[in-house]
Write a structure and sequence with these properties.
The complex is a heterodimer of chains A (about 500) and B (about 120).
Chain A: H1 5-19, H2 24-52, E1 55-58, E2 69-72, H3 74-97, H4 100-123, H5 127-146, H6 151-182, H7 187-196, H8 203-218, H9 226-230, H10 236-261, H11 266-289, H12 294-315, H13 318-349, H14 360-363, H15 365-379, H16 385-399, H17 403-429, H18 446-464, H19 466-481, H20 483-491
Chain B: H1 2-20, H2 25-46, H3 72-102
Helix pairs in contact in B: 1-2, 2-3
The chains are: A mainly alpha (about 500), B mainly alpha (about 120).
């Protein structure tokens, strides 16, 4: 039962929110309470996984592999916890940030729908059920992206919707082919059968379809084009939430599937994954370096950071996987943090355009700091979490002898620093004259400011506590690699 | 039967890709519809095709596993069809709103916002 609550709680909240559809204040309170409950629930699951190891639950009491299984190992628990904190912070931030039209048009309901889908994807142990959670997540995000229906939003949304739908259909095709070959949908059972099966050659075609489908969701090269087109268009609170959750679900599924199902041709899979990771990093960061809109720079950076996570998948040693998991968590916090700070800058100055912005350091030092911290974390300056994430990955890369990808990772890191410094120089440091029309000093909504401060606190905490927390990330990596443990947990 | 379905599925995939390559956004949505139909049929085939057999048991109560189709893919298709319905409805509304805002359904109009 405990494992189903992260999905049931937001669904129950949706029902409540539908009943209180036009009551603005009540809806905000319901959202805060339900997001807190989800976070508490994630802490409880985390606690149990740490104490007793991975555990599973069967929906409706149908034994695996016939029913739908929910499984939590340390990786799922960590991501669940990060999602809980992130959605709570974004919810509080949105209270001050979102306009009333969008709030009363179902914003709270949709954000809960998104959390349902994300939590379900992290926990499920059944590939068709995973498809259903993906759709729950996607449909909520479709409506969130178009919420408000501004012209540029619609324009971005069409690309977002079409490419993600194609991804979903490819995912479904892969499920069909996989089921046709193995006769099971349960992930543990599937892993078991793939290891026992003699003729695994055909499996690679299904696996490649899976990889493409999740690659589209995770926005890796060459499937990332929907992301820069759509992410900068909705209000930044929505973008921040997307940046923290959606693509990370794609990466999580790639991590999970790669370790469970890739049983043959390991060397060629590794090469494919490494090439994809490297090109994703480079292309994302180069596009970021040439942009002049804060939201676009940050959106392109999402792509380049996804490359790092995929690199961890490709290294495939425990330290590489631990690095990838740490990097996902760091990115969920830091990326969302930069978007939240960018939203505050927009509220303060009324623009996202670097050319029009300037001198925030002089007018509002706290705001400058709130941007600087997650930005340095993204670039990887110690003692922020970004440094440790890259350290694990690069250390793992050297250990595995993957010289090229490691060199690319270091190089991309420098260009990341360059584009973060660009935002800093242009928006925060650049002098603009007093009488300039661009030098607005609007009042900042308190809830948004505090949410961003708490996010900055979390980033500092993750960075400073890395020494203490790293054993959990390494244990998560070990559990992810230990396929027998996963199979035993689900099938007893 | 299998050959016929294979040809139909292939034709649906081909038409959907043809639709994707057109410039009209409406045709793009139609392409998605074709694509999801093709995939649903593909799922259907994975369950095995048996004509004139009962769904689970024969009249005397025995089960011949080789003779009956696997019912699970059919359940999956039902789910997929429902999801597909919702998504198609949403995409059509999206295209309609886009048309009302911009007065065009030309895909090339989308590129304006893409530049870095």
């Amino acid at each position: 039962m405990m494992l189903f609550l992260p999905v049931i709680l937001p669904l129950a909240a949706i029902v409540l929110l539908l009943f209180t559809y036009r009551m603005k204040r009540l809806q905000q309170w319901i959202s805060i309470i339900s997001m807190s409950a989800i976070t508490v629930q994630a802490v409880m699951i985390m606690n149990r996984v740490v104490l007793d190891g991975p555990f599973a639950a069967q929906a409706g009491g149908w034994p695996a592999p016939f029913g739908i299984t929910f499984t939590a190992d340390l990786l799922s628990a960590i991501l669940l916890l990060a999602t809980g904190f992130l959605s709570l912070i974004v919810t509080v931030y949105s209270i001050g940030f979102m306009d009333d039209t969008r709030k009363t048009a179902g914003f709270w309901i949709l954000i809960h729908g998104l959390v349902t889908g994300v939590n379900g994807s992290f926990l499920t142990g059944d590939i068709f059920n995973l498809y259903v959670w993906f759709e729950v997540m996607l449909i909520s995000s479709f409506v969130l992206v178009t919420l408000g229906a501004e012209r540029k939003q619609l324009r971005g949304a069409i690309k977002y919707v079409v490419l993600n739908l194609i991804g979903s259909v490819i995912f479904l095709t892969a499920i069909g082919l996989m089921y046709g070959q193995t006769g099971t949908l349960n992930m543990a059972d599937l892993a078991l059968r793939l290891r026992e099966s003699e003729h695994t050659g055909l499996i690679n075609s299904s696996l490649m379809l899976f990889f493409i489908a999740f690659g589209i969701k995770a926005a890796v090269f060459p499937f990332f084009f929907w992301l820069p087109a759509s992410y900068p268009t909705p209000p930044v609170a929505i973008t921040a939430f997307f940046a923290g959750t959606l693509t990370k679900v794609g990466v999580y599924v790639i991590l999970r599937f790669y370790n469970l199902f890739v049983v043959t041709d390991l060397a060629s899979w590794q090469i494919i994954v490494m090439i994809v990771a490297g090109v994703t990093m480079v292309s994302g960061v180069l596009m970021a370096a040439s942009s002049y809109d804060i939201r676009k720079i940050l959106s392109f950076h999402i792509i380049s950071q996804i490359g790092y996570m995929i690199m961890g998948v490709g290294i495939a040693s425990v330290i590489g996987l631990a690095g990838a998991i740490y990097f996902i968590v760091h990115n969920m916090l830091s990326k969302t943090g930069t978007f939240l700070a960018a939203g505050l800058i927009y509220k303060y100055r009324g623009s996202y355009d670097l050319k029009a912005l300037g001198w925030i350091y002089k007018d509002y030092p706290l705001l400058a700091f709130l941007f600087l911290l997650p930005a340095l974390s993204l670039a990887g300056i110690p003692p922020t979490p970004g440094f440790f994430g890259k350290f694990f990955l690069i250390y793992g890369g050297f250990q595995a002898g993957a010289w090229t990808i490691t060199a690319v990772a270091i190089l991309v890191s420098i260009i990341t620093l360059f584009s973060m410094v660009k935002i800093w120089n242009e928006a925060v440091w650049k002098k603009i004259p007093d009488e300039s029309a661009a030098r607005q000093k609007n009042h900042l909504p308190l809830t948004s400011l505090w949410a961003t401060i708490v996010m900055a606190g979390l980033i500092i905490a993750l960075g400073l506590l890395t020494g203490y927390l790293s054993e959990y990330f390494f244990e998560a990596g070990r559990q992810l690699k230990d396929v027998d443990l996963y199979i035993r947990t689900v099938l007893h | 039967m299998l050959t016929l379905l294979a040809v139909i599925i292939g034709f649906l995939y081909a038409s959907s890709i043809y639709m994707f390559l057109r410039r009209s956004i409406v045709k793009l949505v139609l392409g998605i519809v074709f694509l999801s139909h093709a995939t649903n049929l593909l799922l259907f085939v994975t369950g095995g095709l048996r004509s004139g057999e009962p769904a689970f048991t024969a009249e005397d109560g025995t089960v011949d596993l080789a003779a009956v189709s696997d019912p699970l893919p059919q359940a999956l298709i039902l789910t997929a069809i429902v999801i597909g319905l919702g998504i198609t409805a949403f995409s059509l509304v999206l295209v309609y709103r886009f048309h009302r805002e911009t007065g065009t359904v030309d895909l090339d109009e989308l590129t304006e916002h893409d530049k870095p």
